[in-house]
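User: My instructor asked us to take a sequence, write out its structure as tokens, and then describe one feature of it. I'm not sure where to start. Here is the sequence I was given:
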Amino acid sequence: MTNIAVFGAGGRAGRAITAEALHRGHAVTTVVRNLARHRDLPAAVRGDITDAAQVAAIVRGHDAAVNAVSPASGPEELAQLELDPQFFVRAADALVRSGVSRIVAIGLFSNMEGADPLPEQFRAFGQAHAAGLARLRESDTDWVLLTPPAMLLMDSPRLGHYRLGGEAAEEGILSYADLAVAVVDQIEKPTLHRARAAVFNNA
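Assistant: Let's start with the prediction itself. The structure tokens for your sequence are:
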């Protein structure tokens, strides 16, 4: 059994990752900013992924941490958000400084090589995401950033398999459930280290 802290556990990716990890028998600490909005989550704690002291306290005793955090819920809220351009940098710093031995983060498709750029209202979000990846690359921590395709589907079933690519944007589809399979696989039996990879499924 592995102890996993999932930051952003109240979101779509976070919930899918939590469910997959629990299904495989792992111990999961779910971390959210607002406990009152997520009373259904198991082993939930309040935490801000950009707060280094909070992150260190939460991940103590854990084998891996997952960053599935988004600073907004959905595209409409994100478009109106005055985003701190250092949000993902601060998140990366907090996770790295926590001393957790394995970090798995969720990437942004538009930042992959050859991907179409985001619309103007989301550019700041994409730039903040890219800055967070750059900060991870500067660290000595064992991390992987898994990037799903633009077609990330909520209601599609769990197939239990997927394909891994490289730094280039890969056309395809993926369910949140199979993104979760890839995340937990990279915690159980890591094959990617200090790398970004596309994850997709054309089946």
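For the description part of your assignment, you could build on this observation: The chain has a mean pLDDT of 93. Try explaining in your own words what that tells you about the chain.
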